[in-house]
Amino acid sequence: MNILIITPELPFPSYRNGRTSTLAALIDVWRMHNNVTIIAGEPCSSSGLEYYKNLAVNIVENPTSKINFFFNVGFKVFIRPRNIWRHNYDLPEGLDLHCYDFILLVGFESALYLKPILEHRVSSKLVLFELDCLSLLYKKSACSTSNIILKLYYCIQYMLVERIERFSYSSVSSVFFVSNVDADYCISKFTEVKKRIFKFVNNGVNPVSSKWSLRSGDSYLRLCFSGNFDYLPNRLAAKFILTKIVPELSRRGITFTFHIVGANPGDDLLKMADQCGDSVIVTGFVEDIDLYLSDMDIYVSPLFLGTGMKNKILQAMNIGLPLVCSNVSLDGIKEMQDGYNCLVCNSSDEALWVNKIVELANGNNLCIAFSGRSQEVIEDNYRWERIAQSFIEKLLN
What we know:
40% of the residues lie in helices and 17% in strands. By secondary structure, the protein is α/β, with parallel strands linked by helices. It has two domains: 2-204 and 383-396, Rossmann fold; 221-381, Glycogen Phosphorylase B (Rossmann fold, 3-Layer(aba) Sandwich). Strand 10 (221-226), helix 7 and strand 11 (256-261) form a beta-alpha-beta unit. Helix 10 (311-319) crosses helix 12. The longest helix is centred in the middle third of the chain and has 22 residues, at 148-169.
């Protein structure tokens, strides 16, 4: 099959963010049996172009244009949400859209390419792979803050995004998310759109050589949380760790180090970490995150905000790292059950989080059991090769 993928950024390097890692993994499987072309909405690095050339994937650059606050379709004018002001939504000249079986629009931003695509009246199946429902994220963000200015900002962004999503959903044949939570929300929210177009595919991980094992001989506990801290839910979770969980661990006299792992921690998180002293390590970007996390004892994920399936949780499960996490962290991963393969805490009370951490830290057999069971869940449900094939099957159906 001929597949055209339109994406805001070239998925290289794949670890840039959750979207690029997901897309890169799917392309790596699809290109083996299909002809894949990518249109990237921002300039591509020479190393990225070379990488995909070696994979026999065709790249068409369509770089960012001047700032534009409006988006119009026919007689309708949309005010653009803040995150899509600088993208060029005209298709590259000379591109023949009629030769593709599927046109896959990746991420909310790519939905704005629908205007020129619809004008071409293509027969290709149009698919929006939004990954996470952006309006749902803004809705949750507005509900979670007590700051009036922030609440107003999130409400405005929610209305702008929701209007574009409503147009997009009514213009494509399928909308895919990486969590059933987002798909179910859209089914109940966008009642004028046929329910059957909303689908979800699992996020996934590849097999890794780095695996967690129970450490012996060390007198201190190694705890960790990971993510790209440009993303608000990750930043809020890190702040909860640094201002709530870390002080409570210290108050109880527990010897530990808490590792905040990932790119773009920002000055605010670094300042908070400095105030915690030697008990906190902020790594910044880590080249081999699986290897780094495999040396930890417990993964702690106090996410209270977010949408979609969390790559960080799948990564921890993949190496067998025991988990203490919130229900939001487990969105879409229905196989994870409190007390069977992880411990769950949904409280904003740091004492309850530390109780769960201590329970797991003192239970070697529990850690070993959780580790094995979480790896079984990954092997049975979250391998990329199987997921990529499932995606194609759902497209064909």
